[in-house]
Amino acid sequence: xxxxxxxxxxxxxxxxxxVKEIFYAKGRRTTLKKGSELLHGAPSGEVTLLLSGICLYxxxxxxxxxxxxxxxxxxxxxxxxDAFCGNIANVSAYMAKGGxxxxxxxxxxxxxxSANKEILEQQAVNIVVKQESHIEALLACFTLDVExxxxxxxxxxxxxxxxxxxxxxNPLPFSLTNVLIAKVVSASRTSVSLILxxxxxxxxxxxxxxxx
Length: 212
Description:
Blueprint: H1 17-26, E1 28-32, E2 46-50, E3 54-60, E4 66-72, E5 77-78, H2 80-85, E6 92-97, E7 99-105, H3 106-114, H4 117-143, H5 146-159, H6 178-184, H7 189-201
Helix pairs in contact: 1-3, 6-7
């Protein structure tokens, strides 16, 4: 449901296999507690391969309202965008669900990806697609109504894990609260709740432990 670019709204692409192998070989296994902030950016930050849990990139506007820029499921790297540019982005890498990760100091990550041209190119492409997902998310929030934003979010979540099925239910890979969904799609919790309730009444959606 992307509109212009190749990134899926809000959902980062999985890290390339060769990049993951660097973390498996050199990363420090770390418990990432719910509510913790991941250190990121250069030169003193870290890059983390998320093994479990859910991380969010979030920021606050001039009115101190929180916005969610992206949802980062397991298998993705956190902190590589600003590390790749050698800066510190003004975003919070927040663990919405606790989990584990493999952590590399910035200098180890940078030296490792720079030592191999193929890995460096794969990392660069991965980062570009992440940024495209951010742009697509902004396009969705500015050009789609709330219902279509919700469809785009659910479609992106499902597509990140398996091809959507046209003739059967498509379970979400993990549960999200209505409050979190509302922040992601830049809508009120009331609007999101009303739309999801309407979908349930029309048998477009069923609620078990998670939305499907």
